[in-house]
Amino acid sequence: MTTQLDFTARKIAILGGGPGGYEAAMVAASLGADVTIVERDGLGGSAVLTDVVPSKTLIATADVMTRFASASSLVLTSETTGSPRWLI
Ligand SMILES: Cc1cc2nc3c(=O)[nH]c(=O)nc-3n(C[C@H](O)[C@H](O)[C@H](O)COP(=O)(O)OP(=O)(O)OC[C@H]3O[C@@H](n4cnc5c(N)ncnc54)[C@H](O)[C@@H]3O)c2cc1C
Question: What is the pTM of this model?
Answer without folding.
Answer: 0.75
